[in-house]
Amino acid sequence: MTARDAEVIVVGGGPAGAATAFFLARAGLDVLVLDRAHFPRDKPCSEYLSPQASRILHELDVLEALERGPAAHLSGMRVVAPDGTSFEGTFGAVQGFRGFRSHGLAVRRPILDQRLLSRAREVGARVREGAQVRDVVRDNGRIAGVTVAIEERVTTLRAPLIVGADGLRSIVARRTGLGAHGRWPRRLALVTHFAGVSHEREIGEMHVFRGGYLGIAPVGGGLTNVALVVPAGRRDEIRGASAEFVERTIALHPAIAARLAGSGRASPVRAVGPFNWRARVACAPGVALVGDAADFFDPFTGEGMYAAMRGAELLTPYAWEAARATSLGTHLVALQAYDRCRRNEFAGKWAIERLIGAAVASPRLMNLAAASLARQPALAHTLVGVTGDFVPTSEVLSARYILRLLAGAIPRGNRKAPVDKPLAVAR
Ligand SMILES: Cc1cc2nc3c(=O)[nH]c(=O)nc-3n(C[C@H](O)[C@H](O)[C@H](O)COP(=O)(O)OP(=O)(O)OC[C@H]3O[C@@H](n4cnc5c(N)ncnc54)[C@H](O)[C@@H]3O)c2cc1C
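^ thats the input. predicted complex w/ flavin-adenine dinucleotide below
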């Protein structure tokens, strides 16, 4: 038998990798995490965690420390459509459903990610920072290790299971042929922080305009996260001038400019994208993918980190079986079961993500949807509860919800009955 360096090698120590390492090390496996970065490291992100992400943070035993701050507690989301119509969904106001917390948590990524990785270390995972994985190693028709550069020295590390948790355009997914660029969403993001933005209350804001959207959310410590998302076709205008591009875009939209008036940029502008990345399947012999490496969620719904950590939770029992399997057959059965489990878990989210993506890309559709949701707060709370990960997607993908949304989009004079009745949803 070939010598091995760990039972599981996790490539990437972000939320997906750190959570995977935590759960597997806690279950008794010998886990080695490799990340090219040195922590704390920043990551372009709107830095908001859904109410249900708090359940997993609690399981990882980091929630209470993160909540003590610096952090912000977001009561819900406010969306402003291109014509200025706005609606608001409150996490604590969804009839029949309760999240683990009644608020979302906004925390700077350097704080969050370092805390998560430290927790993985505390339960026994070994973590190697400054370790850049360059390729995968094949042996007898399966992936059996990785080639990694650590302080300029290139070496091979082996394990019965490699977990690709290395984010958007994952090297593990690319080298195993699992990942591919899709047609959608071809968008870029520019993320920065402002100081001095006033917040009457802590809430996430999404301002949608023709050709993009901009998110504004407090993240504690007097800082506000500002994330601008635009079509990837604007890449040439952004290259080398990302700060100017953000400032120009804000100035072009008076409502956004007014919202940020009197504040100033407090961190560099970081660019990321395009986001059109998705793996066909999340496993191959010797490999499983988790987090953004498996599929990227559009930042609009702020679900990426929940999906990354939830994916790690789902992977744990299957990874354990795959790492300890005594035959290739049982190893594969475990990994294929993980892939099916992911699909069951996230299929509804993918559908809703596409519907929201289509609305965001069409100002007319967005205006109509916003008008309907503004007239029917119960529908807005339900939608925001779904993006908050504690209301099942079936609540929004139901004929009843869609009909009410469509009915609400018709101007009052043309409608027969008022539709602003709360949804009678039961658990
Ligand atoms: C603009 C924007 C806004 C967003 N806003 C939100 C939000 O508000 N809420 C939310 O939940 N999600 C949000 N997301 C999504 C969220 O950032 C991701 O879903 C989340 O970071 C995924 O975690 P991950 O661990 O899979 O990947 P990452 O956090 O990207 O971590 C991957 C890790 O792998 C390491 N790595 C990469 N390549 C290699 C290599 N070759 N060798 C070794 N290590 C490697 C990296 O250094 C990194 O530490 C947003 C994303 C964008 C772009």
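The CA atoms of residues 285 and 328 lie 8 Å apart.
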